[in-house]
User: What shape does this take?
Amino acid sequence: MPSAPNAVAESAARAPSPAPRTAQATLLNILGDIVFPAGAATPTAAFLDAMGGLGFSEPAVRQAIARCASSGWIDRERHGRSTRWRLTARGTALVQEGIAGVENLADPHAGWDGRWRIAIITISNEQRAVRDRVYRALRWDGFGNPLPSVWVSPHPQRHRRSRAVLDELGLADSTLSFVGVADGIGLDVAEIVRRGWDLAGLAELYAGLVDRFHAVRPANDAEHFVALLHLDQELQHLLVTDPHIPSALIPAWPGRAAAARLLALRRAWHAPAVRHWRAVVERHG
Assistant: This one.
C-alpha cells in the first residue's frame, strides 16, 4: 500500500476508534458535532449533565472521559476547582475525519474511474484471534469480501486504517495489495459487488433509520440535543457499514437518497442542540 499521510492523522488511525453508540463515541460526538470547531474547554460536570440525559450513568461518563484521555484524544485543564477537557490535535484529526465521513454518506461518488484496490490477506489459524479486528478495519475503509481472503474496494486511496492494523499486527508479510481494473476474466463487476457487500440489507437499514428519525418531533432545545446525538450514533455506525459504492456500480440503489434525508435532519437539529449545550455549559461554568 502507498505511504501513509501525516503523522497526526496516522496516529489517530492507529488508536482503535471507539465503537459506535458507546459513551466514548457519544462524548466524541459532542466534542466533534457540538463543540468543534470553537474548541472551548468543557467542564466534566457538563458532560455528566448532558450525557445523563442520553441514558449514560455517571461512572460510564467518567470512564469514557478517562479512556478518551488515555487514548490521547482529549487533554485535561484545571480551572480553580473545576476540571475541563479540550480536544488534542490527535482528537481533532479523529473528529474531523468522522465529520467528513458522515457528510459523504450521501455522495454518489459519480467520478469513479473504474479502478479497484485488491488486497489478498492470509491470516493463519495461530493468528485467528485478530481476524475480527482486521476485518473491521477493512470494512471501515470500505472493503468488501467477494472471495475467501480477497478484499476489494472501489476507493483505492482509502486504506489507512487497514494498513495501520496490518502493520501493527505483523501481517504485512502475508498481504498482497495492488490497484487495477476488472478485465472480464472471472467475476464481472456486478457479481463482485453482489458478493462483496450486503447492499440490500444496508438499504433496509437506511430505510428503517429514515422512518425512525422522521417520526421524532423534538419540542425544545433539550430534545433536539438528544435527537441529534442519537442520530449521530447511527450515522457513526453507518461509517463502518456503508462502503460508499460508486453510483456507476449501483445506479438505482436507494441508500444515497436515504442518507441525504438523514443528513438534512442533522442540519435542522444542529442549531437548537448547540443552544442546549451552551445552556448546560453555562450552568456548570
Notes: The chain has two domains: 1-110+198-285, 116-181. The longest strand covers residues 74-79. The two ends are 48 Å apart (CA to CA). The mean pLDDT is 90.
